[in-house]
Amino acid sequence: MKFLLAVASALLPTVVSSVSSFPFFGGDQKPLVNDDLSVPGQNPLNFCKDPKNYILNIEYVDLDPNPPQKGQTLTIKAKGNFTEEVEKDAYINLSVKYGLITLVNTQADLCDQMAAVDEQCPLLGVKEFTKEVSLPKEIPPVRKTLLAETSSRMSDQIWPMQGKYTVLADVYTNNDNEVTCLNALAQF
Fold first, then answer.
1. How many Å apart are CA 14 and CA 98, to the nearest integer?
2. 47, 182 in Cβ contact below 8 A?
3. 103-111: long-range contacts at Cβ-Cβ below 8 A with a sequence spacing of 24 or more?
4. 170-178 mean pLDDT
5. How far is CA 56 from CA 20, 31, 37, 111, in A?
6. Cα–Cα distance measured from residue 141 to residue 25, given in angstroms and rounded to the nearest whole number
7. pTM score, two decimals?
């Protein structure tokens, strides 16, 4: 579904492209799944809450590779059904955090984002799409470090600790009705 590209793009590759100095996909990342709220398909996405009242019913979102890898092409395949018409001035609230630190917090016009997947508002009915996104090789792994203390002095040894990124995309109609809300967790 083409709409999902906008959401998936907001959650994954758009963030990487717009903030390429931050790592969102590491080589040792594993898919994280919340079985209760997981988005159908092969992806690390979860619904924010029970999706039964969302305007967009997502049939699946498949990412290949899953999890996304830096320097590789990410293929996004998605399908869903808009049960109500979504018109001009619908919007996406996007937030990306590293731990408690907010890296991105923005609002984007949904209909403007739809152009990236050759779709336009109003949106209604079943939508399906396949989109390829090149992820940059320059996404460095960010790690916190912990200095080891030995023999009452600080050692030069450094142990890497994994960082955690959370991505939230909350989508609304122009009347503030919730279209969908998706989140993802990436751990490095």
1. 16
2. yes
3. 103/19, 103/22, 103/165, 104/15, 104/18, 104/19, 108/10, 110/6, 110/86, 110/171, 110/179
4. 97
5. 29, 24, 15, 15
6. 8
7. 0.69
- Assess contact for 102 and 26: CB atoms under 8 A: no
| Average pLDDT of span 38-65 | 95
> What is the rounded radius of gyration, in angstroms, for the C-alpha atoms of the chain?
18
pLDDT at res. 48: 96
Q: Are 4 and 58 in contact (CB under 8 A)?
A: yes
Tokens of 25: 């996909």
Kind of pairing between the strands at 164-172 and 178-187? antiparallel
Strand partners, 108: 92
At 128, the amino acid letter reads E
Higher pLDDT, 11 or 98: 98
Burial of 104 (0-12, 13-18, 19+ CB in 10 A): middle
Give CA separation, 30 vs 7, 33, 60, 92, 185, in Å.
21, 10, 19, 27, 10
β-pair type (56-64, 73-86): antiparallel
Residue 143, phi then psi, degrees to nearest 5:
-135, 140
Question: What number is the average pLDDT over the span 163-167?
Answer: 76
